[in-house]
Structure formats: C-alpha cells, structure tokens
Amino acid sequence: TRRVRTRDLLAAKERGERWPMLTSYDQYTASIFDSAGVPVLLVGDSAANNVFGYDTTVPVTADELLPLVRAVVRATRHALVVGDLPFGSYEEGPTQALRTAVRFMKEGGCHAVKLEGGRRYVEQVAAITGAGIPVMAHVGFTPQREHTIGGYRVQGRGDAAEEVLADARAVAEAGAFAVVLEMVPGEVAKRVTAELEIPTVGIGAGPDTDAQVLVWQDMAGLRTGKAPRFVKRYADLAGALSQAARTFADEVRGGGFPAAEHTF
Ligand code: KIV
Ligand code: NA
C-alpha cells in the first residue's frame, strides 16, 4: 500500500475513525511502528530529552534533528513522517519558518512539519502551508515555552478554555492539516475536536480527540521513573534490556559466551 497522505487523515475524521501516532527517532523503531500499522510517525523535538539527554526541548537544533528525520523516512514505507521544528527555528517570522520547513523537507525528506503555537504563529503556518508543505500545529501545553509557562502544566482550565479554542481555530484557518492538543482538560479537547474540521491529536487531552500520540519510550516503558498521568506503558523495555545486559555481562564474566556455536 502507498504512503499515508494528509487527506487520508481528514477522511478518517469524516468517517469517525481514530488513529494512533508515535514518535520515532531511529531506523528500528520506525520500521517496527510502520509495519505495525501506525499511520503517522513524529520525529519530535522530544529527541532532545529522549535521544540526546537534554533536560528540556529548548537546546535541540535542526542540525541535530535532521539526521534522525532522514533515518525514520528511510526506514518507513507507509507512515506519513512529520518533522518537528525545534525552538529557535521559526519564531522570528514567516521567512525563517519557511526556510526551516524547506530544510526539513529537502534535507530530512519528511512529508510534513510541526510547530508549537496557536494565534502567535499563524503567519508561520500560512507561509509554510502556502509553499506546499503540510503543517501540524500544537496548542495547549507547548514544551518549548516551559520556562514561560512555569513547568509542565495543564492549559485551558476554566476560562482559559477559550484561549485553547482560539489557538486551535487560528491554526486551522491558517491551513494546518492537524493540531496536537497537549495537556488540556478532556472537555476542552472534545469541544475543539467537535468544532474543527481538521483532526486533533491528543496527548494528555482525554479520549475524545481524533488521534492519540505518545512518545515511544514512554509507550514502551523504556523510560523509567515517574511518568506523567497521561502515559500508559504497553511494555517493559527498560526491564527487558536491563535483563539482557546483565545476562550478557554475567556470561562474559563466567565464560558462558561465546560458546562453540558463536565461534568460527
Ligand atoms: O516532540 C514531541 O514528542 C511532540 C509530541 C509529544 C506531540 O511534540
Ligand atoms: Na515536540
């Protein structure tokens, strides 16, 4: 079957079909998720935390993300691959935003880009979509602004619901093909989803969005420790890898590996 297109995602919304999205940053996860039928993969700037070991997404650059985008694109045949524009690569204005988006398309080879922001960045969304590059927007909690927001906090509670709605409407009007809603009350996400024609992709936004996204290391239990409330762990990769490494180490120390069958 062919690559997923943005219009397939719009058609899914019209049919009332929900779809999953995962982050991916490398060849093996990309090809496994692609074969498992995940239709959209995001090379998130969350690579900052989950690949490069930064404390926030703020430091990661386009130069760091682009090789990961290329790897994910090369390893997939069906999924639509979205490249996430990092902090500092689009805020200055539509010209900077379009220049970065073009780099992601030409050097990264992805099929769409994502940026964080609602009303504040409608000119950027319009410039990028105007050039023929599909844009996924991201409203509610936006990690690149965490120093202003004051940490990981639910957005859109009470009267602030109108702010989230206004942001989502603005990016849809500017031409975005989908919008991520991060850490907003379920009722707010439900309203946005009902109002917009474009699909909403929830993370910490309850069950009523058109799609759901998780960071793959959270989904598969590679990241350990306290996870946010919205994370569900579907596997214990940290436990499995730790066990494998311990057994390998023990066998090397004890002389159990390599055995005759591993030897030329
Ligand atoms: O970078 C990322 O992983 C994201 C998703 C969680 C939406 O932006
Ligand atoms: Na991101």
UniProtKB/TrEMBL annotation:
Pfam families: Pantoate_transf (PF02548). It comes from the Bacteria. GO terms for biological process: methylation; pantothenate biosynthetic process. Keywords: Cytoplasm, Magnesium, Metal-binding, Methyltransferase, Pantothenate biosynthesis, Transferase. 3-methyl-2-oxobutanoate binds at residues 45-46, 84, 114. It catalyses: (6R)-5,10-methylene-5,6,7,8-tetrahydrofolate + 3-methyl-2-oxobutanoate + H2O = 2-dehydropantoate + (6S)-5,6,7,8-tetrahydrofolate. InterPro entries: Pantoate_hydroxy_MeTrfase, Pyrv/PenolPyrv_kinase-like_dom, Pyrv_kinase-like_dom_sf. Its EC number is 2.1.2.11. Its main location: cytoplasm. Its cofactor is Mg(2+). Belongs to the PanB family. This is 3-methyl-2-oxobutanoate hydroxymethyltransferase. The gene is panB.
